[in-house]
Each structure stands twice: as C-alpha cells, then as structure tokens.
C-alpha cells in the first residue's frame, strides 16, 4: 500500500473527527465506507485501516475528555460495566467504532470490487 | 461477480445491523446496555459528562432585571435578584442545571410515565401511581392553581427558569442517565410541578393502614384491640402540650360518623413507608439559649437517595434573603432561615387517607351503592406508554370518595381511597414556601400557612424577636373517634369527609413556659382535643428530646449538634432492666453484655444487636395472636405498648396460644433469649454498624452511582433515627441573631451528575455526623474566591 493512501485516510478520518461535535457518531463509519469504495484496494486494508484509525481516534478523544475532567469519567463508566477497569473502557470505546468502521470499509471495498466486475464485463460502461 | 455482490450484501447488512444496534434502533429484550454507539461517542456521549470547571455564563438565562448568582465551593447557588419572580426563575434554572434527571423522574413516577422511559420495568410503578390516585390528584391540583393568579405567576417564573435551562441543552449536555436510557429531557409544565408535589404528599401522607387495622380488630376483638392499640401512653408528650381553644365545634355528624367494616380483608397493604419516619425538630427561646436569641434545630428523616432529595441554596430579593433547602421542582425554601425567622418541619404522621369498601350493583363495576341509590362510576382510561412495546390502557374507577386503590378478584372487597391530596376544590398554594421564606417574624409566617394543604406537617418557627412557635399544618378531615382507622363502608355518605379542621382550631402553640418546643412524629395533641387525629405515631424519640431540653439550661449550637447525633434509646433504657430481671443471670454472655450497655446504638456496639434480636422475639411471641395469623396480615401495636404491658407480667397477652400451658412475661423473655442463643450459636458476634449497614442508592438503583454499606450508628428509636434505607436528610441548626449563624449537611451533594466531584461530596461529612458552616451572604460579591464563580444574569 502506498504511503499516500494511508495519509489520505488519516487526513480524512481526522477531518471528520474534528467535526465530531456536529456529526452523528457513525460519521467515521460513512467515511470508512467511501474509503473502502474508492481508496483501498485490498480487503484487509479496507477492514483494518478504518478499524485502527477509528478506534484510535475515539480512544484518543475519550482519553482527552477524561484527562480534562475533575473526576475520571472512565472510572464512572467502568463502574457501570461491572468495574472492568479504565483501560477496557477505552478499548470498548475504540472497538465500538472500530468494528463499525472496519465493517463499513470492507462493505465499501466489496461494492467497489462488484462495480469493477460490472465494468469489466461491460455491464456498466464508463 | 456474484461472490463480490454476496460479500457486499453480507457486510452491508452486518454494518447496517450494527449501526441500528449501536444507535438504539434495534431493541433486544432484556438487553441492559445503552445504545453503545451514541453512549460512547466521545463528542456527544457519556465522555462529555466529565465534569470540568464551571461554565463562563448561565447559558440561556435571562431575568427581568439584572440578577446575580454566586456558586460557592460546595456548588451551593446564592441567588440575588431584584424581585421574587426573578428569584424563582433562577431557582428553577439552577435546580434544573443540577438536578434535571431527578426532577423528571420524580415527575414521571408520580404521573404514571416511568414505563415510557424504563420499559416494562416501570409498569408497576405507573400502575401504582394510578391506583393511589396520584395522576388524578395531579390533574386536580393543576385546575386548582389555574384559578389562582398569584400561584400561576410564580409557577410560570419558576418553570421558565427550568425550561430556559433545558432549551439551551445540546444532546452532549444531557445528564448521564438520559444517555443510559436513551431519551431526551422534556420541557417542564405546571403538571410536572403538581406531580412532584404529589410525590411529596404520597411519601409523607399517602400511607394507609386501614386493612391492617381492620384485620387486627378482627383477630383481637374490640376490647383487646382497644387496649393494645390505644394511643395513650404513660408520660407521653405530644407535639402541642397546651390545650387549643377550639372556635368551631365538631358537628354531631362528624362526632360519630364512621361505619366500620367488621370482616377481615385478605389483601396486603401496598406502597407503604415505615412508621414514624424519624424526623425531629426543636427550638429554644432566648431564656434557654447561650446566644441570647432562639436556636432552632431541624432534622427531617427521609428515604435516602442519590441525588439527595434536598437542594441547598440561598434566595435573595430586595427585601429578604433566605437560605435553606428546596425540594427540586417546588418553588421556595422548604426548610431554612432568613435574617429574621427560621422554620423547619417534621411529618405530622396524621392519617389523612381512608380506605372505603365499594358495594357494586353487580359484577360489572358500573354502578355502586351510595346513600340508597346506585351511582354510575366514572371510568378514566389512561394510556401507559411502554418503551420498546405497545402502550397499555389502564382504567381507573372513580367513586365519590376517590379512585379504587385495591381491586379484588370477586369485586366484593374493592376499596376506594379518600385522600386529602385528591381534593381539587379547596384552594391551596404550592408556592407557599416562596412566601414563608419572606417572613418577618413567626406571626407573619404563621399567617401564610393558611393556604398550605398537604402533607400534614409540624412546622416549628423561631424569630429574632425571641419567639418560638409550633403548629400542625395542612388539611386534616374533621373526624370523630376512630373515624378512618379501619376500612369503612362506602354504601352511605357518612364516611365521606365534609370539612377540614379550621386553621384556627389546628393544634398550635407559641412561647411555652418550658422555653422550648419540639416535635418528633409523635401524636399531635392529647385526648382533650375535640377532633380525632389518627395516625402512626412515634413514641420514644419525643421522650428523649423533651428530657434533654428539660435537663439543660443554656444551650448552644454545639449541644444541638450532639442531640442530633444522639444514639441513646429510651426504649432500651426501659426494656433492658425488665429483660435482665427475668433472665435472672442464666445467660452469662448476654446478661453481661446488656448489664454493661449504656443503651446507645453506636456503630461499634454489640449489645444493641443482641437487644434488638431479643426484643423482636419478645414482640413476636407476645403478639402471637397477630403474628401467627397466617390468613390475614395485621397491624402491630406501637412498640411502647409492649413496654407498658411488661409491667403487667401476668397479662393474658403473654400466654402463647399454641401451647397448653399458661405463659407469663418471664416465660416469654426466656424463650426469646433462648431463640437468639440458638440462632447465634457458633457465629461471631457482630457490631451494630456491621449488622445493619446503610445504603444510599441512586434513584435508578444503579449500583455504581450509589453509596452502599456505610457502617453508622443510630436507630429509629433514637434521635439519630438512622435506618438502613432512611435517615437524616437535612440536619440544620440556626442560631438567630443580627447575623444568623447556621450549620447544615445532607447525605449527597449538590450535583446530580454522578461524574461530578459534587455528586456525593457531603456524604463523608454527613456520615461522620459533622456539619458545614453555612455561607449566608449579604451579596453575591461577598465570597469571591478561586473556587467560587459569579454570574450576572441580564434581561
């Protein structure tokens, strides 16, 4: 994979994350879907890159908001989930969006391949 | 090609499913999780509930004239406005800011709307609200206030404050609980205030024991019932100790009106709260005060919850400045003080709710017998919305007395409830505490109480002029002896209340010769009072506080703090010697423990645990006529009655019905001790604090938002009437003077946000039985420091 592809993905995910206050929670997943559709060539790239980027972004922002707090909100959330500890709470936060982003990216990538098949077989003409 | 299409469709479906699940659109039964996508989203979800520094402005707030709010280091709001309506507006705004979810859930709970947000888990609560008549009473209260302009102006000012706060909220700002349950805050209406008011009425005056009393009467027969359930006890001291000059005589109709149902009822009394509650208040005149001015102590006991039931604040306008606690959702300060007066309430514990048996014409619940005629029952159909499933429609059958509270399978024991809170016609003012907080002296305050309705309370007052006063306030039906104690027949109009005790005739007293006044949920007044006041009254704490106040001479706030912490039990003091007399030293370990006990329920005390167990066994064995009644649940005589019976060791009540012998008190005591010995054999002896820990649960019973297993002393028969789930809810002591000095504490914190450092920051001080010195400010600029924040609110 080209470094520029990774940089594009990184840039796009970050732009959307910066607009997190105005966008719905699943916005990163929509970005992942389109990246899978237009940018990534391989399935595992389309799944793992959005998974890692989305998860990292949510975890980083969650950590930032928790860091600024008077009382650790991660501790409060952890207590809600049977005192799993703060780290698992960050991981769960990341996994929620990471899995959704990964699946969305993969789905976009399969759609891309299906479209290529249609073009190759002449069903869609460009 | 097909393979890629199939894989696309599969992954797209999984992605869509995941999106819907994480967004909360797919409801899975018994899934306790919130919609995780929304909930864990760092920009909108729970991470945004992390508490940071106070905001720079009170967003969305605007008053008619420039006002100020200072938030101090304990998050107490000090409101300084130029008129009462601006002050109430800011009270509404600040209460919504700190307690929005609590206010909404109490309003929902009292109006049958909990299932709408909790799903089927809330259904029983909603049904209970309907059965108890709270929904109907709420509607009637709104109609009542709508006819009073002054009330509506104040309510609308308060509501505007609440709603201006709600309107500026973004989803990220919603309290955690809204995000957990995935719903949005509703704007507040007058109907919500009515619901919160009704919640208060229900907790403090909605209880009925009529079924239990009826069954006890049936089990014991009239003579024994009257002896065991008499409310006269040797040395008892009522709330009001001087006779009241009654202006309006009790009419003959009231004097002997009750028509009692004589057959037992096989139903459980529902929705009960404990007897006696545990509240205390007292005040001394300048003669008994070390400061030369009256000192007042307030210690209401209520069910412990987080967020706490009280919200601490100062409300000032041009001509008054008051400090104390409000009940979020009700305008004004319920317990507090201003520069001239201090006031505090305890529950009157007076019976203001009756159960009436309805006689249906046939098996249809269409018409019921009333005064020789069949009257059509009014049917009120209410939709109960249930989250995640279809609504259900519940029918309330409304009779002349009130709604049917208990439905029986065969329709023969359908019981309607007649409750003062259901009265929508007598005008009353829910904003009365906004008037009280502006009082200039106790007479001025007393005059404002005429429009107070419910729940019946003992209001204690003290002023800077040196006066102290105590009044039973609230609407209480004018009744004859034992009227309303038992389930009554509803086929005639005799059991329909026709008037309340006039304000002038209500028990009240000022500046007694003893130089002190006190109340502790005991009976209001002695038997010379011409109106019958039934109820479940406390009988030990009043003895203790009267003894302490009689013994002392010049009291200071320090003494009063010690009284509020007092774990001494008069019950134990009186009963332990009798137990020791009959145990005759046969039970070494227990005898020694009890002999050396100073009758205090301290957390590290072991004798208190053993005494409680022995006492409960004696009580159960003595009243085997009632406790062994497997068919019907019955009321139990007051605890003090047992102590009095113990002075008659050969009383037939001590004979066990299940044996062929004739037992006396000595046999019962020995049997009770042996049972405890058997039960405790081989177990390590626990301390009192360990055997009865105290929990302060979150309003939704979320364990991680609760504080559990506190090891505290205290007992329902002590002034520190701590129970596992009830306890001192606002301890306040006020030394009146040119500049009042006051101390206060409640179990919780100002913020309703579990992620705030102010959510439970008072609990450690409270559980150590300590206090905060109250910052009673002259102006908002009085206490500017690093931890406080001043806001200006402009038009």
Brief overview, please?
The complex is a heterodimer of chains A (126) and B (795). Chain A has helices at 3-18, 27-38, 43-67, 73-80, 86-120.
What characteristics describe this protein?
heterodimer, A: 126 residues, mainly alpha, 76% helix, elongated, B: Penicillin amidase (Acylase) alpha subunit, N-terminal domain, 10-stranded mixed beta sheet, 6-stranded antiparallel beta sheet, 16% strand, globular
How would the blueprint of this fold be written?
The complex is a heterodimer of chains A (126) and B (795).
Chain A: H1 3-18, H2 27-38, H3 43-67, H4 73-80, H5 86-120
Helix pairs in contact in A: 1-2, 1-3, 2-3, 2-5, 3-5, 4-5
Chain B: H1 2-23, H2 36-40, E1 67-71, E2 77-80, H3 84-109, H4 115-118, H5 123-131, H6 134-146, H7 149-167, H8 176-181, H9 190-205, H10 210-220, H11 222-229, H12 252-255, E3 280-284, E4 295-299, E5 301-303, E6 311-317, E7 320-326, E8 335-338, E9 341-347, E10 353-357, E11 367-370, E12 373-376, E13 378-384, E14 392-398, E15 404-406, E16 415-419, H13 432-436, H14 442-448, E17 457-463, E18 468-473, E19 488-489, E20 508-510, E21 516-519, H15 541-551, H16 557-564, H17 570-583, H18 588-595, H19 607-622, H20 624-627, H21 639-645, H22 665-680, H23 688-691, E22 694-696, E23 707-710, E24 726-728, E25 731-735, E26 741-745, H24 763-767, E27 772-773, E28 789-793
Parallel strand pairs in B: 2-6, 10-19
Antiparallel strand pairs in B: 1-2, 1-28, 3-4, 3-21, 4-25, 5-24, 6-7, 7-8, 8-9, 9-17, 10-16, 11-12, 13-14, 15-16, 17-18, 18-20, 22-23, 25-26, 26-27
């Amino acid at each position: 994979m080209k470094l520029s592809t990774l940089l594009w993905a990184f840039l796009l995910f970050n732009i959307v994350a910066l607009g997190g206050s105005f966008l719905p929670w699943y916005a990163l997943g929509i970005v992942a879907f389109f990246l899978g559709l237009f940018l990534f060539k391989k399935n595992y790239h389309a799944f793992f890159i959005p998974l890692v980027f989305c998860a990292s972004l949510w975890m980083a922002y969650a950590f930032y908001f928790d860091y600024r707090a008077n009382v650790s909100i991660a501790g409060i959330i952890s207590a809600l989930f049977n005192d799993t500890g703060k780290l698992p709470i960050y991981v769960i936060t990341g996994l929620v969006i990471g899995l959704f982003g990964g699946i969305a990216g993969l789905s976009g990538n399969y759609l891309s391949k299906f479209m290529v098949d249609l073009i190759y077989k002449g069903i869609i003409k460009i | 090609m097909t393979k890629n299409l199939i894989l696309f469709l599969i992954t797209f479906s999984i992605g869509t499913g995941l999106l819907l699940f994480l967004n909360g659109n797919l409801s899975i039964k018994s899934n306790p999780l919130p919609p995780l996508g929304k909930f864990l989203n760092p920009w909108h979800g729970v991470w945004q509930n992390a508490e940071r520094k106070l905001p720079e402005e009170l967003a969305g707030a605007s008053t008619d004239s420039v006002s100020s709010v200072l938030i101090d280091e304990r998050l107490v709001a000090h409101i300084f406005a130029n008129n009462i309506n601006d002050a109430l507006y800011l009270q509404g705004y600040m209460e919504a800011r700190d307690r929005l979810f609590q206010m909404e859930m109490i309003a929902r709970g009292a109006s049958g709307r909990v299932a709408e947000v909790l799903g089927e888990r809330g259904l029983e609560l909603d049904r209970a609200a309907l059965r108890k008549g709270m929904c109907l009473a709420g509607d009637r209260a709104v109609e009542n206030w709508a006819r009073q302009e002054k009330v509506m102006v104040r309510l609308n000012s308060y509501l505007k404050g609440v709603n201006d706060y709600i309107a500026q909220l973004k989803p990220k700002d919603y309290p955690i609980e809204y995000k957990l349950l995935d719903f949005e805050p509703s704007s507040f209406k007058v109907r919500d205030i009515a619901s919160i008011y009704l919640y208060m009425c229900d907790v403090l005056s909605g209880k009925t024991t009529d079924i239990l009393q009826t069954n006890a009467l049936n089990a014991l027969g009239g003579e024994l019932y009257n002896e065991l359930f008499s409310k006269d006890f040797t040395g008892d001291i009522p709330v009001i100790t001087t006779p009241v000059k009654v202006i309006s005589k009790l009419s003959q109709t009231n004097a002997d009106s009750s028509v009692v149902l004589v057959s037992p009822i096989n139903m459980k009394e529902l929705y009960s709260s404990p007897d006696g509650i545990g509240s205390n208040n007292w005040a001394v005149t300048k003669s008994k005060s070390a400061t030369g001015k009256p000192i007042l102590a307030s210690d209401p006991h209520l069910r412990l919850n987080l967020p706490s039931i009280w919200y601490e604040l100062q409300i000032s306008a041009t001509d008054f400045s008051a400090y104390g606690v409000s009940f979020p959702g009700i305008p004004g300060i319920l317990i507090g003080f201003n520069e001239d007066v201090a006031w505090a309430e305890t529950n009157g514990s007076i019976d203001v709710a009756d159960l009436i048996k309805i006689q249906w014409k046939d098996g249809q619940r269409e018409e019921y017998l009333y005064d020789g005629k069949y009257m059509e029952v009014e049917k009120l159909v209410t939709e109960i919305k249930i989250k995640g499933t279809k609504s259900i429609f519940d029918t309330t059958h409304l009779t002349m007395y009130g709604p049917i509270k208990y439905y029986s399978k065969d329709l023969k024991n359908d019981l309607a409830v007649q409750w003062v809170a259901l009265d929508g016609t007598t005008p009353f003012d829910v904003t009365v505490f906004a008037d009280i907080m502006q009082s200039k002296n106790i007479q001025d305050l007393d005059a404002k109480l005429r429009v107070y309705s419910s729940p019946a309370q003992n209001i204690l007052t003290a002023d800077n002029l040196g006066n102290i006063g105590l009044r039973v306030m609230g609407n209480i039906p004018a009744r004859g002896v034992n009227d309303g104690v038992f389930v009554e027949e509803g086929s005639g109009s005799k059991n329909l209340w026709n008037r309340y005790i006039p304000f002038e005739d209500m028990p009240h007293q000022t500046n007694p010769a003893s130089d002190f006044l006190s109340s502790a949920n005991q009976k209001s007044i002695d038997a010379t009072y011409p109106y019958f006041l039934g109820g479940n009254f406390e009988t030990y704490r009043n003895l203790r506080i009267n003894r302490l106040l009689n013994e002392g001479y010049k009291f200071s706030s320090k003494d009063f703090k010690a009284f509020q912490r007092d774990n001494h039990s008069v019950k134990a003091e009186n009963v332990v010697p009798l137990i020791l007399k009959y145990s005759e030293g046969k039970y070494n370990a227990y005898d020694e423990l009890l002999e050396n006990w100073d009758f205090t329920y301290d957390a590290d005390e072991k004798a208190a645990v053993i005494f409680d167990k022995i006492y409960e066994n004696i009580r159960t064995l003595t009243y085997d006529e009632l406790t062994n009644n497997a068919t019907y649940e019955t009321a139990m005589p007051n605890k003090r009655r047992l102590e009095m019976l113990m002075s008659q060791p050969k009383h037939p009540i001590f004979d066990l019905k299940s044996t062929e012998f004739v037992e006396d008190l000595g046999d019962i005591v020995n049997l009770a001790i042996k049972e405890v010995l058997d039960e405790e054999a081989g177990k390590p002896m626990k301390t009192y604090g360990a055997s009865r820990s105290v929990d302060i649960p979150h309003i939704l019973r979320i364990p991680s938002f609760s504080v559990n297993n506190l090891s505290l002393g205290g007992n329902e028969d002590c002034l520190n009437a701590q129970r596992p789930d009830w306890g001192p809810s606002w301890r306040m002591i006020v030394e009146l003077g040119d500049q009042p000095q006051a101390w206060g504490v409640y179990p919780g914190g100002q913020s309703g946000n579990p992620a705030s450092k102010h959510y439970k920051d008072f609990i450690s001080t409270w559980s150590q039985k300590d206090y905060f010195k109250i910052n009673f400010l002259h102006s908002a600029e009085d206490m500017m420091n690093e931890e406080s924040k001043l806001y200006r609110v402009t038009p």
